[in-house]
Amino acid sequence: MKNIPQAVCQKFKDARRALGLTQSKLAIEIGCHQAALSMFEQGKSTKLSDDLVSKLAVRLKLDLEQLIKMEQEEKEPILPSTISVGFCPDPECPSNTAYTVGERALFRIMLQKGIYCAHCGEVLEHHCPSCGATLNEGACCSMCGSPYVSRM
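RE: above sequence
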C-alpha cells in the first residue's frame, strides 16, 4: 500500500501504544525490522510492503481501508483552479502596505494563494469587492478604480 496518509500511520502508532506493544516486539511479530516500523509510524508508508501493512492492521485490529476513507473525508476541499490568488481585506493586516497619494490613503495588497491570509488568517478576497473584476496588482481595481482595501 503506497502513499498511506501520515495521519493514518499515526493511528497505527496510537493503536500499538494502546495495546502496550513496543516497536521491537511488534516488528518481530509481523516480520520486519524495528526501524522500518518506526519510519512507517512517522508517515513513511513505503517502508513496509503491502503484506506487512496488512499483517500490522490485523495485529492491531485496524481497518486500513476505513481509516484511509475517513482521512480523505476530513480533508479540506481543494480550491478550484479558477481561484488562484487573493488578498486580505483587513487594513490592519501586515500583508497590506499603507501609503498615500495626495490626500488619499491606499493599501498596496500582497497577492496570496489559498483560502486564508498567511499573516492573519482572514478569508482572502479573490475578486474586486466593488465590481467583481479579476484582481490586478496594486491598490485599486483596474476596471472600476475602487480601492481593494479601505478603512471604514
